[in-house]
Design brief:
Blueprint (H helix, E strand, L loop, with lengths): L5 H7 L15 E2 L1 E4 L6 E9 L5 E8 L8 E6 H6 L2 E5 L2 E6 L2 E2 L6 E2 H5 L2
Antiparallel strand pairs: 1-9, 2-3, 2-8, 3-4, 4-5, 6-7
């Protein structure tokens, strides 16, 4: 699955860094990436294309470890693309999965996601 499409690039142009400063819970989530095999979700609030073609995102991350580690922060498209999620059967790694973009995600307030 392609994590970034031309269509998504176009949508992100309306949400550059600092464009949602001060909006708090009313900031709009533009994209959602997730681990289809377990915990870990990345909600994109703002994005900026880097000189090397990568994207740097600012958003809210639901920790793949435990909810106590959920936080706002920066993450890159290349980081998400390079994550390899071990798929195990009886404790033996049989394959690796990848992060996916939620194809059916619709824009929503961040407050609706984090419960504020």
């Amino acid at each position: 699955m392609e994590l970034m499409t031309r269509e998504m690039e176009g949508k992100l142009k309306s949400f550059p860094f600092y464009s949602q400063d001060g909006k708090g819970d009313d900031a709009i989530v533009v994209m959602k990436f997730f681990n289809p095999y377990g915990l870990g979700t990345w909600y994109v609030l703002e994005a900026e294309k880097q000189e090397n073609g990568d994207y740097l995102f600012f958003g809210y991350v639901e920790s793949p470890i435990t909810p106590e580690f959920n936080e706002y922060g920066y993450f890159s498209l290349s980081e998400l693309e390079n994550l390899k999620i071990p798929i195990k059967i009886n404790g033996i790694t049989v394959s690796y999965g990848r992060i996916e973009r939620d194809l059916y995600f619709e824009r929503v307030r961040i407050g609706d996601i984090i419960g504020n």
